[in-house]
């Protein structure tokens, strides 16, 4: 190998090491995010979307800081029948995605506003957060503001039993 060929080989190679390092870092980050998404029982795209979704923790919701709240369960009717948080309303994600849920949400909010004379904060929940994050995006795309209950009904039930729901939420 001539000196000029060797120098050309070395100069091309010096770009390969940083490129390999960047690729390895990207691969490792994707792996870590995928594992974290799996632990949160979410797909990677929904998990990434959760970073930009307005959320409220069980502790914050139970603290009573929000005066006026409407809880919306975005799970299936069967899941809603099994267990729900307090007097939450059922509005399945499939209805929100199809558009028919928007009319239902308008009716729920109008009824609340007539009864309480104030505009409520919409809190969405599902089992662990995946569907409520999707529902939140759908509602934001249609001009609504909502919060997602972090950890869903699973996180709520870790702190409160069914018999406690109404007393915890009584200040709402």
TrEMBL record:
Rhodanese domain location, by residue?
Answer: 65-165
* SUPFAM superfamilies xrefs: Rhodanese/Cell cycle control phosphatase
Q: Does the keyword Transmembrane helix apply?
A: yes
Ordered alphabetically, the record's keywords are: Membrane, Transmembrane, Transmembrane helix
The reply on keyword Metal-binding is no
- CDD domains given in the database record: RHOD
- Membrane-spanning intervals of the chain: 15-35
Sorted alphabetically, which InterPro entries does this protein's record hold?
Rhodanese-like_dom, Rhodanese-like_dom_sf, Thiosulfate_ST/Rhodanese-like
From which domain of life does this come?
A: Bacteria
Record Gene3D superfamilies: Rhodanese-like domain
Q: Per UniProt, what is one Pfam family of this protein?
A: Rhodanese
Q: What is this protein called?
A: Rhodanese-like domain-containing protein
Organism for this UniProt entry: Pseudanabaena catenata USMAC16
